[in-house]
Amino acid sequence: MNSEDEERESLETWQVVLVLVPLCSIAVWIVLSNAFVILAVVASKSMRTPPNIYLASLASTDFLVGMLILPFNILQIVKNYWMFSEELCKTWLTLDVTLSTLSIFHLIAIAVDRYRAVSDGVAYVLNRTIRDVVSVVICLWIVCLWIATPPILGWGSWNDIKLNEKFICEYSTTFGYVIHSAFGSFIFPMILMITIYLKIFGKIQQKFQERAAVPSLQNSIDRELSETETSGDLLKTKRETQKVKRMNNSRPTSQIQEFVTKKIRFSLTKERRAVRTLGIIIGSFMICWLPFCIMYIIRPKTGDPPIVIYHLLTWLGYLNSAVNPIIYCVCSKDFKRAFNRFFCRRNRNNHVL
């Protein structure tokens, strides 16, 4: 980690408590909150849509961070050395890089899915299946493992600073690998994700401008309703289309036009809300991981930062796994309803018992 003359003694008792309480609280929150996100999607049939499957897969990644990465990191911080074998160290670091990279690649997949839903409308939504999402997630794992595993294959090496047969398990500082992993895991994906997000936002704004006034009613009702319902709720779209057709035969044109206008505005508002949620998720990821990425890139040239700064920036990145479930609950009405149903059901069962 830092220079070899830096003290590697274990922390004192009060320091251990000061470290363990917040770090363990974060780890437990990450595991439980992301487990609830996964459960909300799995337990509710209405929640099992392709967009929500992406979110559940992202939550699974964050769940694994809390279960497999953070406990070892906490132990190393407390003991000030790696307590386990070198092989487990390499496996742990590879999994750490893989899961961190997988988070941002999930955000790219979600952004692409949202862009195609907004751009292609019902044509894309009709053909999008959960099997397609699973195939994409498998591809994401393959790419992330390709980014994370070069040190195992011999490119670069992890820094095992041995002190009385104790060593620190940490990332490689080989400059070539650092650039490879930083660009593959963060910089290029972040540029791509921001570009896609801006395109999505532009599409939404364009639709709002184009549909400020409802066009020729008879020729556009079906098209307008279908194009604006991109959330995957196709049965609702069909019911609304049939409702408009019945209204077209029984009510004055002004009433039909008013209904269509409200329907379009509601759908576009819902779509813009989904895009805003995606923007918040992307923004939180940048805030949490950008400082660590900068430190990671400059470290081979500038040397190791103070150990406290290193751990703070590392855990700021991990904190992103704790933030995502909060974003879902606050910004997504579907997840909020799913959480409420789950907890209300538990409360009713407790009262019965």
Automatic annotation (TrEMBL):
Listed GO CC annotations = plasma membrane
| TM annotation in the entry | 16-41, 53-72, 92-112, 133-155, 175-198, 274-298, 310-331
Q: Which UniProt keywords apply?
A: Cell membrane, G-protein coupled receptor, Glycoprotein, Membrane, Receptor, Transducer, Transmembrane, Transmembrane helix
Gene3D superfamilies from the xrefs? Rhodopsin 7-helix transmembrane proteins (1.20.1070.10)
What are the residue boundaries of the G-protein coupled receptors family 1 profile domain, all occurrences included?
A: 33-328
Indicate whether Nucleotidyltransferase appears among the record's keywords.
no
- Which one Pfam family would you cite for this protein? 7tm_1
Q: Do you know which CDD domains this protein is assigned to?
A: 7tmA_amine_R-like
Entry superkingdom: Eukaryota
GO MF term (any one): G protein-coupled receptor activity
Q: Which InterPro entries match?
A: GPCR_Rhodpsn, GPCR_Rhodpsn_7TM
Checking PANTHER family in the record gives: ADRENERGIC RECEPTOR-RELATED G-PROTEIN COUPLED RECEPTOR, TYRAMINE_OCTOPAMINE RECEPTOR
Membership in a protein family: Belongs to the G-protein coupled receptor 1 family.
UniProt-recorded name of the protein: Putative G-protein coupled receptor No18
Q: Which organism is it from?
A: Orchesella cincta (Springtail)
